[in-house]
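Hey, resending since the last one bounced:
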Amino acid sequence: MKTKKIVADSMPLALKMVRQQLGDNAIIVNTRAIKTGGMFGFFTKQKFEVTAYSIEKEGASAEPKFSVELKAKSENNNQMSSESSNSVFHKKPQELYNYYSKPTVVTEKPTSPAPQSLEKENPFLDELTSMRKMMMTFMMNEQQGNILPPGLAKCVNSLKKQGVDEEIIEYIVSCMLKRHESMIEMAEDVVEIEIITIVKEIIEKRVPRSNMVNESTRMINVIGPTGVGKTTTIAKLATEQVLKQKRRVAMITTDVYRIAAVEQLKTYAGILNVPLEVVRTKDELEKALTKLAHYDLIYMDTTGRNYKEVKYRESINEFLNHPLESDNYLVLSLTTKFEDLQILLNEFRESPVQKLIFTKFDETTSYGSIINVAYKYPFQLAYITIGQSVPEDITAIDATQLARYLLGKEK
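The structure tokens again:
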């Protein structure tokens, strides 16, 4: 294995030198801008340093392995390999944007029908796809933000600071590259508007058109881990139905384990003048439902537990297994790391949960988890809560406003 540090006046030139000295199979491990020359920190010149290594043996051919294999199969594919490899390392930075936005096209010989599995078996396509992904990640690296147009680089950094998943950022960048041949001269505000539109489209796919409760719905079940604000959220939702929709509402709680949980819900029930039933078992739930059968809508506050454990998920499912038509909401706190939210959401993929409520929007400045969930999971994004006040501090998700938050345009 050979390792080298290449220093050049520009990043494209450094990449070209890496290829010339270490071959096409060279792997870049680090890049950075450095200052050279000068005296006492003055009159320095910026250069670019690339650290790379090659696993080829001494004297071995620098030609990529996939090119050698393709020579035995097709001279035509070999030419494509040579042209594509050269194009990646010799294009100027502003030309990279257009290159990465183009789909890979494979020209087949008309006299030789290609099997359906050719694309999967062609090592050239696999290598080119891997190379493009590597270069896309490289272009978005914070140390090389200057490779992207200034407006796009600024937006990418904003999304990263908000905790937006790298996969989503790559998708957004690819959308911009497909829409524009060059963004060098695009004004920053124009770039921001377009990215806000893309982010809005991702979120809107998961936001229901309306949060109105159907007349046929008889029960609202609210589920979530300990401390996310389920009880307060139920009070906010119930108040909407009592005061604005003029429905006869009742409440049930199964949360008999948390200190003062029942008393808290009793207080809200007393303010709204609605009945509250406390249940501990499935049999008690059936009796409570019979007792409350003449009410239009019943809200059930479930026990907050560690739902990563199977036994707790199964215990909740017992209470959700009733004959009434219902909506099931999972409550999540935006102060929770997205990695932990993923664990929880993965466990609820096959559950009766259809909708999500994000709480504590006002207690964080990072909102990337919302778009991460919208992109990766099938749940509807119903509400966010923005404070402790009942009933006003709950609202439907506004995709445009949230997109502006993610780009740092709202605070």
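Residues 58-121, 141-146 have pLDDT under 50 and may be disordered.

Sorry for the duplicate.
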